[in-house]
From TrEMBL:
Organism: Anaerotruncus colihominis
Record HAMAP family: Dephospho_CoA_kinase
Pfam families named among the record's database cross-references: CoaE
Nucleotide-binding among keywords: yes
UniProt protein name: Dephospho-CoA kinase
GO biological process: coenzyme A biosynthetic process
Keywords: ATP-binding, Coenzyme A biosynthesis, Cytoplasm, Kinase, Nucleotide-binding, Transferase
Span list, region Disordered: 204-232
Length: 232
């Protein structure tokens, strides 16, 4: 940790893996949560500079006639194309990171003992460097597709395009300190969460060393803690 009493826990994972449900379990335990997606939505909708940069990157299609963000069009353009998604991140990350950094300082000022940073692009944005440890949630493609279809009311084909535009399991398991494989139901996920919280509590008390991921993430999972769980 960096001299403060707030332990920052990064939470990341693939779409449909159950990250939001796990984040909710942290909140139920009284852990302060920063939801990077919520910060991103607020930033993209209210920062005029960010909106202008999005128009320059993707054309006026991404805004409504009243100059507000057209989220549906932006998602249509970016979420099924890895290159365009990368460009979206390049444009928005500086604004989002600044807003998140401010929220982290507010949590420290409040004296929060633990702070969860829920960020699907934790590594891509560099926000993992602000965390004391990282939890990754993964699930198999079939399970993720089923959840995405039910959640977002989209076709199988659209769900698979979204999945294929994202990183694979090794991207997360090669970097994270703790990994939850979430292919079952919510009860199984809650059981895995309870086990995870015990480990995090020990870590917060200084009873568990920081785990080091392998130097080359492509080599595999390395020395991380793996838990299994489930979530619909």
């Amino acid at each position: 940790m960096d001299g403060t009493k707030t332990m920052i826990i990064g939470l990341t994972g693939q779409t449909g893996a159950g990250k939001s449900t796990l984040s909710g379990m942290f909140a139920e335990r009284g852990v302060a949560v920063i939801n990077a997606d919520a910060v991103a939505r607020d930033t993209m909708e209210h920062s005029k500079s960010c909106l202008m940069d999005l128009v320059l990157a993707f054309s006026t299609e991404v805004i409504h006639p009243d100059a507000t963000l057209n989220r549906e069009k932006l998602a249509e353009i970016c979420f099924s194309d890895r290159k365009k998604l990368r460009r979206l991140n390049e444009v928005t990350y500086p604004y989002i990171i600044e807003a998140i950094a401010h929220k982290i300082e507010q949590a420290r000022a409040r004296g929060e003992r633990m702070l969860l940073l829920d960020a699907p692009t934790l590594y891509e944005s560099g926000l993992d460097k602000r965390c004391d440890c990282v939890v990754a949630v993964i699930a198999d493609e079939q399970t993720r597709a089923r959840r995405i279809i039910a959640r977002d009311h989209m076709t199988q084909e659209a769900a698979m395009r979204r999945i294929n535009a994202q990183n694979n399991d090794a991207f997360y398991t090669g970097r994270a300190d703790y990994v939850i494989e979430n292919n079952g139901d919510e009860d199984a996920l809650r059981f895995a969460f309870m086990d995870l919280m015990e480990k995090l509590e020990r870590r917060a008390r200084g009873g568990e060393p920081v785990l080091q991921p392998p130097a080359d993430p492509e080599q595999g999972a390395g020395d991380f803690e793996e838990l299994t769980g489930g979530d619909e």
